[in-house]
Amino acid sequence: MQNLHSVNGGRRNFLQSLGGAAASLALSRSAGAASIGPGRRLAGVFPIAFTPFTEDNKLDVDGLAAEVRFCNKGGVHGLVWPQLASAWSTLSDTERMDGTEAILSAGKGGKTALVIGVQSPDMAAITRYAKLATKLGADAIISLPPAGVTDEKALLDFYSQVGRMTELPLFAQSTGTMSVDLLVAMYKAIPNFRHVKDEAGDPLTRIAEIRRRTNDELKVFSGFGVQTMITEMQLGFTGHCPYTNLADVYSAAYDLWNQGKKREAFDMFGRIQATASIMPVNTIDVMIARGVFRPGTKVRTAPAVPGAPVKRPAAPAISHEQMRDTLKEYLGPYLKA
Questions:
Q1: How confident is the model over 218-246, as pLDDT tens digits?
Q2: Which residues, 6 or more positions from 14, have their beta carbon under 8 angstroms from its beta carbon?
Q3: Among 102, 89, 111, which Cα is nearest to 132's?
Q4: Residue 14 main-chain phi, psi, to 5 deg
Q5: CB of 100 within 8 A of CB of 136?
Q6: In CATH, what number is assigned to the domain containing residue 117?
Q7: Rounded Cα–Cα distance for residues 220 and 222 (Å)
Q8: Tens-digit pLDDT profile for residues 128-158
Q9: Domain tally for the chain?
């Protein structure tokens, strides 16, 4: 498949490259496909991992490993990397491979399920990432749709190809105009597609139809920073994908809810919302304040090309020391990591 980001003909080349894919793909469902994979449960809080960089613009693989250990220690159910919040489009092929190896190595023996993002403008690269994830013991893979492609037949063909690359469970991240009809067609056609991170349209109004039309077998995860977690749990979302900063507190809220302690879950989520009124909870600053990332850790911002310069995060409204003190004072009993 040609590079979808090329200036001339990217979308056309994509459609042409997939033209015959559906005809050659057996569209049969296999019994028990939802249980394919190493076995860690694909439900709960699955934050989208940050991608840390050093002062000299090198991928901080030690920081990635520390992020995995943070999730394991904090009782976080899963971790996803690299996706939009990970600035995946700024990563080189080598950085993608090295980061995947660091994350899966750090997660061995832990309870946190690890989901590896495989999206790329190059199908050969997607194949490499999927095969590496399979080889190194990922629990699942996830892919965004190709940039600029809205034709739903082409998207079905794309995800069918990705699903054939591995027996690992496949998550799709829906975006833009991806319809419920498309998700249902993917569910019927792709045996290992049983999870979707739904960020197309209004997920709060789509979930009932997705659950009904797939007999509740296509499991829906939330995104958008998980600002409506209580409502999401009421509606039957299987998982939630916030930022990593307070993933242990989100996980506590999820666990309480699923233990039938809904009032306690409400209160726990309220603590997250109160914290967000004091400090940013969607930047790496909290990870620095909590000692997961080293001082001076940087990020890249998308859109950018692989190897783009790192960006020094804007100074937070309160210092890392103040963040640390505030977290200790107000969330201390609830922080597990």
A1: 999 999 999 999 999 999 999 999 999 99
A2: 1, 2, 4, 146, 149, 154, 158
A3: 102
A4: -60, -50
A5: yes
A6: 3.20.20.70
A7: 7
A8: 999 999 999 999 999 999 999 999 999 999 9
A9: 1
Identify the three-state secondary structure at position 295: coil
User: CA of 196: how far to CAs of 119, 301, 315, in Å?
Assistant: 14, 25, 35
The answer to whether the CB of 278 falls within 8 A of the CB of 326 is yes
Within-domain flag for 15: no
Pairing type for strands 78-81 and 44-45 reads unpaired
**Sign (positive or negative) of CA dihedral 87, 92, 98, 101:** positive
- Name the residue with tokens 């995860």: 221
The answer to whether the CB of 177 falls within 8 A of the CB of 206 is no
Token pair for residue 17?
A: 């490259």
CB-based contact 70:337 (threshold 8 Å): yes
pLDDT value for 52: 97
Q: Residue 57 to residues 22, 126, 187, 286, 308: CA-CA distances in angstroms?
A: 41, 24, 40, 21, 8
Query: Largest Cα–Cα distance in the chain?
Result: 60
Beta strand segments in 186-256, E: 193-198, 219-222, 239-240
Domain of 299, in residue numbers = 36-334
b/e per residue 298-309 (b: at least 16 CB within 10 A): bbbeeeeeeebe
Report the distance separating Cα 205 and Cα 265, nearest Å.
22
Both tokens of 336, joined, read 């597990």
* 5 part of a folded domain: no
Three-point CA angle 74, 173, 217, nearest 5°: 85
Domain membership of residue 1 (yes or no) is no
Over residues 167-197, the pLDDT tens digits come to 999 999 999 999 999 999 999 999 999 999 9
